[in-house]
Amino acid sequence: MHHVSLSVTNPKQREYLRSLAFNPDSDNVALWQDLANQLMFTGAKFDPERASSARKSLGIVIVRKGGRRTVHVNTTMFTAALKLAKIEGFNMPQSIYTGPDNPGRKLSSQQVAAPAPLPPPPPPPAVVIAAPATRALAPAPVVPVLVTSERWPNADFKDLLALMRDHMTTHNIKLLTITETGVSFKRIEVVEGDLAL
User: Fold this and answer.
1) How many domains does the chain have?
2) Which among 51, 56, 62, 136 is placed 20 to 30 Å from 71, CA to CA?
3) CB count, 10 Å around CB of 143?
4) What pLDDT does residue 137 have?
5) Tens digit of pLDDT for each residue in 136-148?
6) What's the CA gap between 157 and 178, in Å, rounded?
Protein backbone atom coordinates (compact mmCIF):
# COMPACT_ATOMS: atom_id res chain seq x y z
CA MET A 1 0.00 0.00 0.00
CA HIS A 2 1.39 3.43 -0.93
CA HIS A 3 1.90 6.00 1.79
CA VAL A 4 -0.47 8.98 1.64
CA SER A 5 1.04 12.16 3.02
CA LEU A 6 -1.48 13.76 5.37
CA SER A 7 0.85 16.63 6.26
CA VAL A 8 -0.84 20.05 6.01
CA THR A 9 1.88 21.08 3.54
CA ASN A 10 1.04 18.25 1.09
CA PRO A 11 -0.65 19.90 -1.97
CA LYS A 12 -3.67 17.54 -2.04
CA GLN A 13 -4.07 17.65 1.74
CA ARG A 14 -3.94 21.49 1.60
CA GLU A 15 -6.90 21.44 -0.82
CA TYR A 16 -8.97 19.31 1.58
CA LEU A 17 -8.05 21.80 4.34
CA ARG A 18 -8.79 24.81 2.10
CA SER A 19 -12.23 23.47 1.19
CA LEU A 20 -13.07 22.90 4.88
CA ALA A 21 -11.63 26.33 5.78
CA PHE A 22 -14.37 27.96 3.70
CA ASN A 23 -17.10 25.41 4.57
CA PRO A 24 -16.30 23.87 7.98
CA ASP A 25 -19.62 22.01 8.15
CA SER A 26 -19.26 20.33 4.70
CA ASP A 27 -20.14 16.66 4.63
CA ASN A 28 -18.04 14.34 2.44
CA VAL A 29 -20.32 14.77 -0.59
CA ALA A 30 -20.12 18.58 -0.48
CA LEU A 31 -16.37 18.41 0.18
CA TRP A 32 -15.79 16.22 -2.88
CA GLN A 33 -18.06 18.37 -5.09
CA ASP A 34 -15.79 21.29 -4.21
CA LEU A 35 -12.56 19.36 -4.96
CA ALA A 36 -13.52 17.06 -7.87
CA ASN A 37 -13.29 19.74 -10.58
CA GLN A 38 -9.72 20.71 -9.73
CA LEU A 39 -7.03 19.58 -12.14
CA MET A 40 -5.00 17.76 -9.47
CA PHE A 41 -8.02 15.58 -8.61
CA THR A 42 -8.93 14.65 -12.21
CA GLY A 43 -9.66 10.92 -12.31
CA ALA A 44 -9.08 10.64 -8.54
CA LYS A 45 -11.47 9.22 -5.96
CA PHE A 46 -12.67 10.89 -2.79
CA ASP A 47 -10.17 10.01 -0.04
CA PRO A 48 -11.95 9.51 3.31
CA GLU A 49 -8.57 9.31 5.10
CA ARG A 50 -7.56 12.77 3.82
CA ALA A 51 -10.98 14.21 4.74
CA SER A 52 -10.85 12.71 8.23
CA SER A 53 -7.29 13.91 8.79
CA ALA A 54 -8.13 17.42 7.51
CA ARG A 55 -11.11 17.61 9.92
CA LYS A 56 -8.96 16.31 12.79
CA SER A 57 -6.18 18.87 12.20
CA LEU A 58 -8.78 21.67 11.98
CA GLY A 59 -10.45 20.55 15.23
CA ILE A 60 -13.72 19.64 13.48
CA VAL A 61 -15.78 16.89 15.18
CA ILE A 62 -19.06 15.62 13.70
CA VAL A 63 -21.69 14.12 16.01
CA ARG A 64 -24.74 12.38 14.56
CA LYS A 65 -27.68 11.75 16.85
CA GLY A 66 -31.43 11.40 16.40
CA GLY A 67 -31.40 12.43 12.73
CA ARG A 68 -29.39 15.59 13.52
CA ARG A 69 -25.82 16.34 12.51
CA THR A 70 -23.86 18.64 14.82
CA VAL A 71 -20.44 19.94 13.79
CA HIS A 72 -18.20 21.20 16.60
CA VAL A 73 -15.25 23.41 15.59
CA ASN A 74 -12.30 24.07 17.91
CA THR A 75 -11.61 27.59 16.56
CA THR A 76 -8.13 27.75 18.12
CA MET A 77 -7.01 24.54 16.37
CA PHE A 78 -8.80 25.67 13.21
CA THR A 79 -6.86 28.93 12.87
CA ALA A 80 -3.54 27.36 13.96
CA ALA A 81 -3.77 24.57 11.33
CA LEU A 82 -4.68 27.02 8.54
CA LYS A 83 -1.83 29.33 9.53
CA LEU A 84 0.55 26.35 9.33
CA ALA A 85 -0.86 25.40 5.92
CA LYS A 86 -0.57 29.07 4.80
CA ILE A 87 -4.27 29.24 3.86
CA GLU A 88 -5.77 32.74 4.14
CA GLY A 89 -8.97 34.61 3.33
CA PHE A 90 -11.38 32.34 5.23
CA ASN A 91 -14.02 33.63 7.67
CA MET A 92 -13.79 32.66 11.33
CA PRO A 93 -16.07 29.61 11.71
CA GLN A 94 -18.88 29.22 14.22
CA SER A 95 -18.01 26.83 17.03
CA ILE A 96 -21.20 24.77 16.38
CA TYR A 97 -23.22 24.04 13.21
CA THR A 98 -26.38 21.94 13.37
CA GLY A 99 -28.73 20.61 10.76
CA PRO A 100 -30.64 17.52 9.68
CA ASP A 101 -28.43 14.50 8.97
CA ASN A 102 -28.67 13.28 5.36
CA PRO A 103 -27.69 9.59 5.53
CA GLY A 104 -28.71 9.20 1.86
CA ARG A 105 -25.79 11.42 0.82
CA LYS A 106 -23.00 8.94 1.56
CA LEU A 107 -20.15 8.86 -0.96
CA SER A 108 -19.33 5.48 -2.37
CA SER A 109 -15.61 4.79 -2.42
CA GLN A 110 -15.96 4.11 -6.17
CA GLN A 111 -17.32 7.56 -6.96
CA VAL A 112 -14.77 9.23 -9.22
CA ALA A 113 -14.24 12.80 -10.28
CA ALA A 114 -15.62 13.99 -13.58
CA PRO A 115 -12.63 13.99 -15.98
CA ALA A 116 -13.61 17.33 -17.56
CA PRO A 117 -13.13 20.27 -15.17
CA LEU A 118 -16.31 22.07 -16.36
CA PRO A 119 -19.60 20.40 -15.34
CA PRO A 120 -20.04 19.72 -11.61
CA PRO A 121 -20.52 16.03 -10.79
CA PRO A 122 -24.20 15.00 -10.84
CA PRO A 123 -25.80 14.64 -7.40
CA PRO A 124 -26.10 11.04 -6.18
CA PRO A 125 -29.36 9.35 -7.29
CA ALA A 126 -32.28 9.86 -4.91
CA VAL A 127 -32.83 6.08 -4.70
CA VAL A 128 -29.74 5.55 -2.51
CA ILE A 129 -30.75 3.46 0.48
CA ALA A 130 -28.62 4.28 3.49
CA ALA A 131 -27.32 1.38 5.53
CA PRO A 132 -28.91 1.22 8.99
CA ALA A 133 -26.81 3.12 11.50
CA THR A 134 -26.32 -0.01 13.63
CA ARG A 135 -24.57 -2.05 10.92
CA ALA A 136 -20.79 -1.69 10.72
CA LEU A 137 -19.56 -0.63 7.29
CA ALA A 138 -16.96 -2.91 5.72
CA PRO A 139 -14.19 -3.00 4.58
CA ALA A 140 -13.26 0.64 5.23
CA PRO A 141 -15.60 3.31 6.62
CA VAL A 142 -16.50 5.93 4.02
CA VAL A 143 -17.87 8.42 6.51
CA PRO A 144 -15.73 9.88 9.33
CA VAL A 145 -15.73 7.84 12.52
CA LEU A 146 -18.93 8.50 14.44
CA VAL A 147 -17.84 10.16 17.65
CA THR A 148 -20.09 9.22 20.54
CA SER A 149 -18.20 11.35 23.03
CA GLU A 150 -15.38 13.81 22.57
CA ARG A 151 -13.50 12.13 25.39
CA TRP A 152 -13.19 8.68 23.76
CA PRO A 153 -13.30 9.16 19.99
CA ASN A 154 -11.74 5.76 19.29
CA ALA A 155 -13.80 2.60 19.84
CA ASP A 156 -10.68 0.36 19.63
CA PHE A 157 -9.18 2.32 22.51
CA LYS A 158 -12.33 1.74 24.58
CA ASP A 159 -12.11 -2.03 23.90
CA LEU A 160 -8.46 -2.02 24.93
CA LEU A 161 -9.33 -0.19 28.17
CA ALA A 162 -12.08 -2.72 28.96
CA LEU A 163 -9.60 -5.61 28.50
CA MET A 164 -7.07 -3.81 30.73
CA ARG A 165 -9.68 -3.26 33.46
CA ASP A 166 -10.62 -6.98 33.40
CA HIS A 167 -6.95 -7.97 33.63
CA MET A 168 -6.35 -5.51 36.49
CA THR A 169 -9.33 -6.91 38.44
CA THR A 170 -8.21 -10.51 37.88
CA HIS A 171 -4.67 -9.79 39.11
CA ASN A 172 -5.54 -7.31 41.90
CA ILE A 173 -3.69 -4.49 40.15
CA LYS A 174 -4.49 -1.01 41.47
CA LEU A 175 -3.14 2.44 40.50
CA LEU A 176 -2.00 1.65 36.95
CA THR A 177 0.08 4.52 35.51
CA ILE A 178 0.96 4.62 31.82
CA THR A 179 3.45 7.20 30.55
CA GLU A 180 5.44 7.60 27.34
CA THR A 181 8.43 5.97 29.04
CA GLY A 182 6.79 3.03 30.79
CA VAL A 183 4.12 1.50 32.98
CA SER A 184 3.97 1.29 36.78
CA PHE A 185 1.34 -0.25 39.01
CA LYS A 186 0.62 -1.36 42.56
CA ARG A 187 -0.54 -4.90 43.18
CA ILE A 188 -2.55 -5.85 46.23
CA GLU A 189 -2.19 -9.39 47.59
CA VAL A 190 -5.21 -10.68 49.50
CA VAL A 191 -4.21 -13.01 52.29
CA GLU A 192 -6.87 -14.93 54.18
CA GLY A 193 -6.47 -16.19 57.73
CA ASP A 194 -6.81 -15.21 61.35
CA LEU A 195 -4.73 -12.42 62.74
CA ALA A 196 -3.23 -13.12 66.14
CA LEU A 197 -4.08 -10.16 68.36
Assistant:
1) 1
2) 136
3) 17
4) 47
5) 445 554 555 554 5
6) 14
